[in-house]
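Tip: read the tokens left to right.
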């Protein structure tokens, strides 16, 4: 076990570093009347019992968890901890033990700093990021809705216990996040000492394979670097600010991502590259050095490339960074000798660097169907005049029933239009908050079948949303294009929507068959199953009607393909068959289901009235009124194609539209 002693102006404490060293905690708990072990739900489930077994001689243990995620690093979480501590008579002689990653280290420290004007706390960091950064140095904070770490205090812990055994259960993405901060440390000292940078370059395999001695040496060096800055500038009045390398842009990025779908380490890595490019402009540093840093990040599976945002959005977000003052935006940059320094950077220079990364941007796609309105936001890379989805950020679905009674009346109801517009306003606000550079909406069968479609389209355009009304063939093409991201061999993609069903047969090199039919779950429900009447006669009539319209697909039954189902009818078959309490894309996407399984689902649906169907495990309440019709359509299709198995895919027209530069109007 290694021991590093931190000495600051008003405290000193130990950093203990080693493998399986939790028992050493007993030596630091003798003088406390109560102990609160604070964690998140995931870490708590993994490690509470283990930690308790090492300190079971104490009878005054309390355990408290908050949900996982940066979005819970807020005053509401802290208030819930205060409430618990007050209700259980915690005193100034009590201690908080933070067991978790950076969020828990920050919240535990902030709570300790403010409860009864300050009590002791101990850090037991469980992620690489928190072991090399968040647990050390006494910076504690919570987030505000307008920015990260805006509310906080300096409060040094009484002990930091770093047990590398925790890293064995750390997800790879979180390990890579920690490496973003580790690489940052190597760059801060690069001008004086390149040994740590070279150590990281030369020991990649041992570090990624968690060779304990190598990883321990890596963490120790990071701690020693931070020790130097903390001891010499405890309250960040000088050189300690250099530890914020990458953080100005990185924190802005985390805020724009709503603290989801991006790790702290990835955000900071992108920030470092952004600041290196600023340094190149201001101090003419060598491009080769920047390339070396990019390569090192990539070696540790960190995507370091900055993302383009509209200039005003980026500048406004950067201005809310806590390191700024006097209206300036402060970055950490490199001078000609590659020394790091604080510098106020002009907006025009920030905008120039931002525009270097226009090939990476955030894009939003909205699919306005007969029954649902869906939003997909993704990080896009444009390369060689092609678009690629680098990261999916958000998928939302709302039931708006835009196509209600279109089959009968041939026009969109005013109330249906208002429901849809309300949904679109919300989606646009979400896109603006996340910095979406390009937002495109497309409307499908309900809109294209309505005599007043232009009224609806004009209202959407008035919201500032670029909208297209697309044909069934365009919809089918987008669906197919989305699935070529997943399948390389021959597939027949079937999209059962609310008003129409699209079929596309082929592979990524060639489309052999493509057709849209006016057969959809909402349309069928309105035609055959009004008032929830699913009599045998109505079902038989429905099947006969479907078979008559879909006759052209019978010629496909002798073709060689995998049958792929997309959209709500298909995904619901999996979630109901697997009895998913909560919809899980990882389980649903690319799962298979047989005709027998679908038949069992249909029997279950038919055994209940509408109200009881809404309570079926795996069936979203909003789909309960059209799921029977959708299932009957799906069954009939599989029978006509003589297919016994369906592969369910979540890569559909949203994905296809996301990688399409321009979508054609109907």
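Filled-in amino acids:
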């Amino acid at each position: 076990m290694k021991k590093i002693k931190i000495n600051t102006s008003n405290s000193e404490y130990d950093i203990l570093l080693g493998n399986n060293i939790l028992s050493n905690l007993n030596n630091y708990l003798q003088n406390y009347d109560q102990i609160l072990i604070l964690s998140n739900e995931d870490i708590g489930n993994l490690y509470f019992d283990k930690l308790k077994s090492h300190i079971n001689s104490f009878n005054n243990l309390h355990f408290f968890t908050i949900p996982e995620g940066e979005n819970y690093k807020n005053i509401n979480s802290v208030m819930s901890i205060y409430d618990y501590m007050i209700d259980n008579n915690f005193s100034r002689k009590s201690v908080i033990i933070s067991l978790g990653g950076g969020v828990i280290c920050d919240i535990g420290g902030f709570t300790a700093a403010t409860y009864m004007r300050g009590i002791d706390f101990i850090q037991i960091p469980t992620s690489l990021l928190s072991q090399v950064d968040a647990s050390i140095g006494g910076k504690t904070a919570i987030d505000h809705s307008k920015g990260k770490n805006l509310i906080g205090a300096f409060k040094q812990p009484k002990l930091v216990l770093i047990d590398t055994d925790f890293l064995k259960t750390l997800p790879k993405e979180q390990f890579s996040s920690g490496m973003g901060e580790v690489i940052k440390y190597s760059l801060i000292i690069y001008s004086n000492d390149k040994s740590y940078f070279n150590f990281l370059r030369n020991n990649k395999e041992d570090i990624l394979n968690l060779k304990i001695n190598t990883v321990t040496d890596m963490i120790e060096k990071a701690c020693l670097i931070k020790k130097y800055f903390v001891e010499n500038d405890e309250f960040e009045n000088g050189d300690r600010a250099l530890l914020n390398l990458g953080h100005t842009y990185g924190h802005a990025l985390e805020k724009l991502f709503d603290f989801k779908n991006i790790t702290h380490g990835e955000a900071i890595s992108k920030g470092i590259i952004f600041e290196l490019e600023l340094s190149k402009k201001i101090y003419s540093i060598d491009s080769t050095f920047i390339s070396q840093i990019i390569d090192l990040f990539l070696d540790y599976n960190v995507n370091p490339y900055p993302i383009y945002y509209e200039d005003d959005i980026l500048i406004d977000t950067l201005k809310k960074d806590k390191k700024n003052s006097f209206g300036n935006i402060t970055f950490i940059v490199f001078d000609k000798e590659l020394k790091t320094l604080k510098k106020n950077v002009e907006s025009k220079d920030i905008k120039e660097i931002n525009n270097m990364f226009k090939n990476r941007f955030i894009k939003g796609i909205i699919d306005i169907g007969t029954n649902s309105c869906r939003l997909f936001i993704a990080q896009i890379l444009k390369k060689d005049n092609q678009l690629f989805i680098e990261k999916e950020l958000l998928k939302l679905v709302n039931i708006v029933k835009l196509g209600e009674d279109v089959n009968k009346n041939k026009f969109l109801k005013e109330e249906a239009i208002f429901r849809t517009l309300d949904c679109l306003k919300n989606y646009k606000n979400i896109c603006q908050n996340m910095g979406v550079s390009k937002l495109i909406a497309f409307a499908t069968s309900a809109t294209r079948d309505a005599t007043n479609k232009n009224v609806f389209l004009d209202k959407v355009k008035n919201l500032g949303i670029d909208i297209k009304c697309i044909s069934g063939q365009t919809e089918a093409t987008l669906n197919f294009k989305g699935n070529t991201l997943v399948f390389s061999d021959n597939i027949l993609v079937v999209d059962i929507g609310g008003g129409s069903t699209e079929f596309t047969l082929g592979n990524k090199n060639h489309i052999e068959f493509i057709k849209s039919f006016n057969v959809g779950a909402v349309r069928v429900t309105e035609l055959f199953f009004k008032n929830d009447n699913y009599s045998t006669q109505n079902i038989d009539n429905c099947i006969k009607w479907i078979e008559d319209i879909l006759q052209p697909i019978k010629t496909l039954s002798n073709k060689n393909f995998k049958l792929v189902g997309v959209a709500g009818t298909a995904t619901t078959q999996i979630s109901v068959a697997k009895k998913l309490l909560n919809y899980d894309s990882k389980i649903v996407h690319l799962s298979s289901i047989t005709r027998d399984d679908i038949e069992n689902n249909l029997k279950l649906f038919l055994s209940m009235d509408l109200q009881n169907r809404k309570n079926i495990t795996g069936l979203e309440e909003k789909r309960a009124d059209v799921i029977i019709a959708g299932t009957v359509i799906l069954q009939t299709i599989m029978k006509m194609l003589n297919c016994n198995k369906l592969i369910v895919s979540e890569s559909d027209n949203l994905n296809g539209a996301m990688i399409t530069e321009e979508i054609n109007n109907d």
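The longest strand covers residues 386-399. Residues 73 and 418 are 36 Å apart (CA to CA).
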